[in-house]
Specification:
The chain is an alpha+beta fold. It has eight helices and 17 strands.
Length: 319
């Protein structure tokens, strides 16, 4: 049953600038979904509309039975139940970690304030940093403080707008994995927006792909990976090799096998990656170059090979 529901939401800034077009989204209570799309695809506009911070051109957002009002309909925009988190931490520089997290609770009962802040400091592994100022923290720790502040008033929905973009790869990976466990434990509903598929997969197995303001595919990551609706979705997961003579039939580099009875190819480029060598090969007698994963790191530039694949691994798009 949907808890957060976006129905036919459109956003048009002017005649040429359409950010969202009849966008629909349903997320169950406690669900975590990752939304992937390139810059300018409408992701941030959607999150601001969901949070009640931006006026949509048409459509409606519901949280349970509650209609989310936009700034034209509500005197004070926004909702405590829905917290939007950006990559800019927006922490108070002269306040401690503890004070930053406690700030939204100033009007709450003192005992509850103390209990909630202690709970969040422990949950986010920030207890030993409670008396530090933001400048004394790493980027990942600062982002955890920002998330702790958002969680302080026990929101029902967290909207994450590329909040890890400024972190290095190691910090980002560790933080996403840590936060996913926390979000699941708190049973908070999360919409995580990113342009990085790897980040999306670390956060959630449920993917939404947005392109030019439209939701073009959603589902379990395995379904989206194996059956992308178009080339844009397929290429989010990496390289595609076009089957010679087939305009819309492709094979992924990871699905190719080295076998004697396959297509003859010659290595023209080799790149050393973390888990394999990425080869660029030229198909014999074809005007095609392919990318090939060489996990054994066996082949060098100039080497010949024979490549084959299983028919069920082919990716085909409609005409």
């Amino acid at each position: 049953m949907s808890f957060l529901k976006v129905s036919d939401v459109s956003k048009q800034y002017d005649e040429k600038n359409i950010a969202l077009e009849k966008f629909n989204l349903q997320v169950p209570r406690g669900g975590i979904v990752s939304m992937v799309g390139e810059s300018g695809s409408g992701k941030s506009s959607l999150l601001r509309i969901i949070a009640g911070l931006e006026v949509q051109s048409s459509g409606v957002v519901h949280l349970g039975d509650q209609k989310i009002l936009n700034p034209q309909q509500k005197l004070v925009p926004g909702y405590d139940e829905i917290q939007l988190i950006h990559q800019e931490y927006k922490l108070y520089p002269n306040s401690t970690v503890e004070e930053n997290i406690a700030r939204p609770l100033l009007l709450y009962n003192k005992d509850y304030q103390k209990q909630r802040v202690e709970e969040l400091l422990g949950l986010l592994s920030l207890t030993e940093h409670r008396d530090k100022k933001p400048k004394q923290l790493s980027g990942g720790q600062q982002q955890k403080v920002a998330i702790g502040r958002a969680l302080s008033i026990e929101p029902e929905v967290l909207l994450l707008d590329e909040p890890f973009s400024s972190l290095d790869a190691i910090q980002k990976r560790e933080l996403i994995e840590e936060l996913k466990v926390i979000f699941e434990a708190l049973e908070v509903t999360v919409v995580f927006v990113t342009h990085d598929v790897d980040d999306a997969l670390l956060m959630s197995e449920q993917l939404l792909i947005i392109q030019k303001g439209k939701l073009i595919q959603q589902g379990n990551v395995r379904e989206v990976f194996r059956k992308p609706v178009n080339e844009y979705v397929a290429k989010l997961f990496g390289y595609l090799n076009r089957i010679p003579g087939e305009e819309k039939t492709y094979i992924r580099p990871s699905d190719l096998r080295f076998e004697p009875n396959g297509l003859e190819a010659k290595v023209i480029k080799q790149q050393y990656l973390i888990h394999y060598n990425l080869l660029t090969v030229e198909l014999q007698g074809k005007k095609e170059t392919w990318k090939v994963d060489d996990a054994s790191r066996k082949y060098e530039v100039g080497d010949k090979m024979f490549l084959t694949y299983d028919e069920d691994k082919l990716i085909r798009f409609g005409k």
